[in-house]
Amino acid sequence: MIGQFLTNQNEMAYMIAYTAATSYYCLTQNHEWIDEEGYVRVMHTLLDFYDQNKDLSGKIDSLEKYLKLRKKEKLDQQLLKDYQKLRESSKSKM
Fold it and tell me: Are the CB atoms for 2 and 50 separated by under 8 Å?
C-alpha cells in the first residue's frame, strides 16, 4: 500500500503526489473518502508520474512492483485488495 514507501526523502515526493491526487479526486467527485474506483485511478496517476520521474528521484521498490504488475495486467486486482486493507485499517482506528 501507499504507506510502504515513506522511508526516505526521495519517496516523500510520491507520498505528496498521492495525497494531492487523492484530494483532487475526492473534491472533483464530491466524495468525503476515496472509493475503490478513485483509489485505482489515483494509483495509476501516481505510477505514471513515478515512471516519468524515477530517473530523477531514484527507484522505489514498492512502486516498481506495481509497475511490474501493471505490465502483467494484474495491477487493478492488487489495488482492489490494497484498497480493502486500507478501508479495514481505517475502520479499526475509528
Answer: no
Give the sign of the dihedral formed by CA 73, CA 24, CA 81, CA 62.
Answer: positive
Q: What is the pLDDT of residues 27-75, one digit of tens each?
A: 999 999 899 999 999 999 999 999 999 999 899 988 999 999 999 999 9
Q: Range of 12's domain?
A: 2-92
Q: Which amino acid does the sequence have at 1?
A: M
Cα 53 from chain centroid?
15
Closest by Cα among 50, 40, 46 to 74: 40
* Strand, helix or coil for residue 10: helix
Total tally of structural domains belonging to the chain: 1
Element (H, E) at 77: helix 75-92
Asked if residues 21 and 13 have their Cβ atoms less than 8 Å apart, the reply is no
Question: What is the reported pTM?
Answer: 0.84
